[in-house]
Amino acid sequence: MTADTIIAADIRINARWLIPIEPKGIVLDRQTVIITGSRITAVVSQAEADAKYRTRETVDLPQHVVMPGLINLHGHAAMSLFRGMADDLPLMTWLNEHIWPAEGNFVSEQFIADGTQLAMAEMLRTGTTTFSDMYFFPEVAAQAAHDVGMRAQIAFPLLDFPTAWGSGPDEYLNKGQELISAWQGNEFISPAIGPHAPYTVSDGPLERAIHLSTETGAPVQIHLHETAFEVAEATEKLGQRPVARMQSLGLLGPNTQCVHMTQMNEADIEAIAASGAHIVHCPESNLKLASGLCPVQKLADAGINVAIGTDGAASNNNLDLFGELQTAAMLAKVVANDAAALSAHDALTMATLNGAKAIGRDHELGSLAEGKLADIIAVDLSDPFIQPVYDPASHLVYSNHGRAVSHSWIHGVPQLQDGRLTRIDVPDLMLRVDGWRERIRHPRNQ
Ligand SMILES: CSC[C@H]1O[C@@H](n2cnc3c(O)ncnc32)[C@H](O)[C@@H]1O
Ligand SMILES: [Zn+2]
């Protein structure tokens, strides 16, 4: 090889193991990922990298598995400030008696800025590089994610009633339109439309949300079939199950992400499959609020794309997507009565490529391949809790927790180095978070 055949690049990551996600089920040994600017320009053996590439930086990860960054497809980031505030309650009691009153008292632009940063710190520490958010002041959340350099789908909220962010559907939709105009086409932030749920949004605003989605191409994300109560109440009051109502309104389609999806019958599954809508599975929130079970394997067998999300830290109570995968894989087996349901590799695909598909970005995110964006994580498998290593995919899902994530890059920019965040001032953030704890827990607010 002569000097002029040597290729110049920016970063070289030498990994002990590599899980590219595509092709599915593959684990490669001693591979190198080459990054040039924001993209992966090669995935080659370390010997080939030695011969062909010269980079300005080399990162040796001799005990690590390298894979695409995780995609947390459903959450309410700033609700991290309400973590542990109201536990052991069913959904409607949790919302009506605790969360909605607290949101009325505390949600403001500063609450969103600080809470979103807290959530991003946790997500980055545990391997997430792209997240989806549905919460108030989405313009503040979008700016917060952009400032840190995280990728995010930011869905503006749509409800029938007033909140800290607006007086009702007209204002939510007007402000939402502004959010879409401001961020559409941005490489980091994808604006989206977030009608809260069938029981909080009536037909008129839902139809306007569908129209806005068709007009702008912005995806819709909605909580749907979260609890048995939701389905029973809708059936009794409206004579229709929520999935059927969404189908007749025209909300189901390839640009729609349905979150939770418990209590599904055969007709619901058929309707979702035929529409091409995506499902976002949130197993830990479903378990903690005793909401119900999502039949993940059955949905996948029906050809539905199933992604995964943590939901907010007030109902989970963490944003560790590796922990969520463990729960998802374990639960899928019981629900399907089949220990082979949702294998470790299927679970990893759910948190990467399936998430990318749901937001329409699988051409550039969700796997490690030449030309894709350099959103990459490394997990250190050297600790006793994760040894010995026969199959790194098994450990990532069944033995790991996000605490073993050591490095991450988003758009080729390092976000986590040896477990330390590069773009968030954690001590300063903790002071602000503690200020919120004092305000929220002050006796006058009890
Ligand atoms: C439309 S802004 C988000 C709105 O949703 C509330 N919320 C948080 N978690 C859940 C959940 O699991 N189901 C339904 N609603 C949820 C949040 O508190 C905001 O008010
Ligand atoms: Zn939610």
UniProtKB/TrEMBL annotation:
EC number: 3.5.4.28, 3.5.4.31
Enzyme class: hydrolase
Catalytic reactions of this protein: S-methyl-5'-thioadenosine + H2O + H(+) = S-methyl-5'-thioinosine + NH4(+); S-adenosyl-L-homocysteine + H2O + H(+) = S-inosyl-L-homocysteine + NH4(+)
Cofactor note: Binds 1 zinc ion per subunit.
GO MF term (any one): hydrolase activity
Protein family (similarity comment): Belongs to the metallo-dependent hydrolases superfamily. ATZ/TRZ family. Belongs to the metallo-dependent hydrolases superfamily. MTA/SAH deaminase family.
Domain Amidohydrolase-related intervals: 65-412
Record-listed Zn(2+) binding positions: H74, H76, H223, D311
Positions with a binding annotation for substrate: E103, H196, E226, D311
Name of the protein described by the UniProt record: 5-methylthioadenosine/S-adenosylhomocysteine deaminase
Pfam families to which the protein is assigned, alphabetical: Amidohydro_1 (PF01979)
Role played: Catalyzes the deamination of 5-methylthioadenosine and S-adenosyl-L-homocysteine into 5-methylthioinosine and S-inosyl-L-homocysteine, respectively. Is also able to deaminate adenosine.
NCBIfam families named in the record: PRK09045.1
Record's keyword terms, sorted: Hydrolase, Metal-binding, Zinc
Organism classification: Bacteria, Pseudomonadati, Pseudomonadota, Gammaproteobacteria, Pseudomonadales
UniProt cofactor(s): Zn(2+)
